[in-house]
Each structure stands twice: as C-alpha cells, then as structure tokens.
Amino acid sequence: MGRTEFRIGVVAPGSRIEPALAEKTRALAASLFPDAPPELRFHPQCFRSSGHFAGEDGERAQAFVDMANDAGLDAVWFARGGYGACRIAERVLAGVTDMARRKVYLGYSDAGALMAGLYKAGFARLAHGPMPVDLTRSGGAAAVARALAFLVQGAPDALEPTVSAGAPTAAFNITVLSHLLGTPLEPDLAGHVLMLEEVAEPMYRIDRALFQITSHPGMRRLAGIRLGRCSPIPPNDPDFGQSEAQIVAYWCERSGIPYLGRADIGHDIDNKVVPFGRYMAAGED
Amino acid sequence: MGRTEFRIGVVAPGSRIEPALAEKTRALAASLFPDAPPELRFHPQCFRSSGHFAGEDGERAQAFVDMANDAGLDAVWFARGGYGACRIAERVLAGVTDMARRKVYLGYSDAGALMAGLYKAGFARLAHGPMPVDLTRSGGAAAVARALAFLVQGAPDALEPTVSAGAPTAAFNITVLSHLLGTPLEPDLAGHVLMLEEVAEPMYRIDRALFQITSHPGMRRLAGIRLGRCSPIPPNDPDFGQSEAQIVAYWCERSGIPYLGRADIGHDIDNKVVPFGRYMAAGED
Questions:
Q1: CA–CA distance, B218 with B189 (Å, rounded to integer)
Q2: Cystine design at A134: which of A140, B38, B183, B217 (Cβ 3.0–4.6 Å)?
Q3: Cβ neighbours around B19 below 10 Å, total
Q4: What is the pLDDT of residues B175-219, one digit of tens each?
Q5: What is the ipTM of this complex?
Q6: Using CB atoms and an 8 Å cut-off, which of residues 159-218 of chain A contact chain B?
C-alpha cells in the first residue's frame, strides 16, 4: 500500500481545545488539498482537561513524546498555546528519540517553551507559526491554510518575508521568552535574527521583558531583533509615553543589539512562519 | 549644633507619588516620634513625571545616587514601587560610593530590581518592607509606622517573625525576581531563605514565574522558600486547580528546594520587614 499523504500529529502541551475545532481543521485541510488531503491526527489528549491544562503534566508529556517518536508521522503541530509547555519540557526532552528529530514542528506563543528546549537539543525543523486554534479568529482560515501550506508543501510564501538563507532566525512571544531566561530551556541565539511578538501585555510589562531579554549576555550576541505585532495592548496608567517599537529600539540601542525593524508575525491571522535556525525542509539533511 | 535625629532620604526609582503623600508621611513620623522626629527628605524627583515614570531615567538615577552618597543621611527609602527601577540600576550601581554602603535601604515590589543589584554589589543593610505609598491603603499607617520603627530604631518586632540570625534571608515580588534572572542584576541567594510575595497576577503567571525561579541553577542552592501573600489574584480561566501555596510547594519539590511554609509579607498593611542577608543595623560592621 503506497503512502502518499502527509501525516500531522496534533498535540496540546498547554491549554485544551474543543473536539469541534479538530473537525473544523480537518475540513479545512480537506478543502485545501482535495486530491491528497494531509492526515490530521489529533491526540485525544488535546481534549482532556485538568485544571488550567489539557490533561495532567504526565499525559501531555506522553502525548507529545508519542507523536514525536511515531515513525508514521511527518510533523507535530501544536493545537494551541495558552499555558503549560514549560511544565512538560523536561519530560519531553528526556523522551524523544532520533525519530523525533526528522519531523517538522510548528506552533507559537506558549509553544515557545518547548521549541526553545527542542532547539537547544539540536532539532533542526522547528518553526514559529499558526496553529489550529487560529481558526477561532475571524478570518483565521487564512492563518491555518498558511500553516498547512508550510507543513505539507514547504510553501515559501508562508514564510515571514525577511526570512532568508543569509542568517538564522528564531521567533518568540516576548513574555514567554523572558520567562525562559536563566533556566535550562533558555536558547542560544547567537548570530540569529530574533523576531518577537506580544499579546495583551501593558507597555510597562513589554518594557520590563525587553530589559530582561536585552540584558542577557547571550542575547547580546544576536544578529538583531525584529518586532512583530503587539496586540491588543491594554491601557497603561499613566500613558507609557513610548510605543512598542520605541521600547524595542531603546533597549536595542542600550544593549548594542541591532534593531532591524518590524516583523510580520503576531497573535493574528497575518502571522507568518519563522523557522528556527536555517530551516531545512523534511527530507533534507 | 548637635545632630540627634535620624535622617531619611526618599526617592522614587519607579512610579511617582503626590506631594500630599510626602506631607502625610512626615505628619505620621512627627506623631510617632514626638521628641525627636526623623527628618524625611523627599527628593523633588519623587513628584516629577515622564510618561510611566517619576521623571526621566537620568533624573531618577541621579536622585538615587545623590541620596545614597549624601553624608548627611542615614537611610534611603523607596517612596513607591510601580515600575522603573530596573531601567536605572546600571547607572545607580556605577554612581554609588562607599558612603552609600553605610546606609539602610528599605522598599519592596519594583524596588527589588535595585535591591538585587545593590545586594550583589555587597551592600549590607538592605531590607524588603513598607514604603510611604502604603499610606494610601486603608489602615496603611500601621505599615508605614512599622517601616519607620525599623529604620529609626531597628525595632525587632518590625521583622518578619521567622527572620533569625541562623540563616540569611531575602524577599522579592515573584514577578520582579523572575524578570531579573539571566541579567546582571540576578542576585546570588545561595544558602538564603527566600521569601516571595505577589499582587494581582493570575495563577498561571504565578506558576510560570515559579517554573523560572526554581529552574534557575543558582536558585536551586537556596536554603528554602517561604511564600508570602498573593493578593488579589484575578480569576483564572479555567480555574487553575491549585492554590498559590500548592504551586510553590509543587515547584519546590520538583526542584529540590525546601518549601518552608508561609511568610508574613505581601502588598498589604501587614507586610513585615525582611533583611537581605544577615541584617546589620547602622553603625555595626
């Protein structure tokens, strides 16, 4: 029996999703690839619930490890962010095998905690980009279609437009990255262009996280920082007096990190895909 | 002319205060020490305004340095937290002289960023405790009276009750400490009992910050963690499923740091004083 379709395992290391979202994602995939729709295998863990999380830490870690090590899958897709990936990273990193290294991984926001750990462990096919949960946004099908085009076809127009073979890249949510610093998950991004985005954080918190990121000795070896969208920013009392771009430019100047301008990423439907490192499509080595 | 009174310089490294609060604080000090009221010298910088901050970074840094190096002052008191101390820490640390090392420093919340830097620089008379802004709380005179009793008289009953000569201590706001990790301001607290408190952070954020703090290799050399009050905690959606004490106990167990129970500190009028290290009263060496 030939195997032609692309197989994607979906897991939820942080917050849970509804089964209806899985169906909706499958229907979109079928409509986008009518001849050979990718198989979307949502792990039952995605729908589990344990307090804040999509199941207990052990369940979420095991689901991720099972999907990552499954020889029948080509990619692992984060269903959603929320919060919880940092809690299972240690177990995931201890459980993944060489089989896991061959897959593509795609997600953003809270997923950054696991992406950081996998990148540090030498995984070469990680990318920051849309997730099934983006279908809950108005117009979100565009984001999820972009993610599928990237996963299934490696479509170059899914990539953030400044991504090039010239410099390795990485992308993170600002708050998520700041909370990895000083931990075993903190990534070594020397020589990388780091793209940052934020959602629903007041300006003073964006400023505080940028203080931390740009004060970190390892981060001072970045090739530069690009700022994605920070939206929606709650009111700051009093008015902060600077925009998010001014804040990032300020901390870049203070720390000697080049500020390279804006990036086309964010918690929105226009969120483009950013590979970690110099991205290799599946099959390349 | 004899000099009998205790002289306290007040600065605002983060957010500003109103002049009326300075007057109210002076009136309280006069009523508490009718025979020899301490002199409270509020730097005009406390009332300045520049966007989010009590004046520009340069003004706030200079005000702190001027007060810290002033031979005519016995103590430096943070007027308020808010946000901004981390932005001026580098300039403050470059500007303080040996004269500054003889003083007592008292504050909490955002002040922790500067306290951490001063402690790392070997300052021996730092303490986490109430500030003039606590007068804006209902019943806040009790907190400010406690701070003054500590500053002026070194009153032992102002101290957090578990503080002893047996182990060095330190206290921080959870979020403020987490954002110092990986930066030049991160304190070396090996062998210390670390007391933590929080205000207005949802449970998932408390959990994320505890992941970071307890995953930090240096923090794993703590003698233990005590948890102060976390209040008021906004609703978590969905319910987090654990209390703040359960979260701290969980991360302590996972990281091998002893969890020692509760501490009598917090963003409230009962906030007790916690010295950094083994506290020495002014005059001791």
A1: 7
A2: A140
A3: 11
A4: 999 999 999 999 999 999 999 999 999 999 999 999 999 999 999
A5: 0.96
A6: 178-186, 203-204, 207-209, 211-212, 215-216, 218
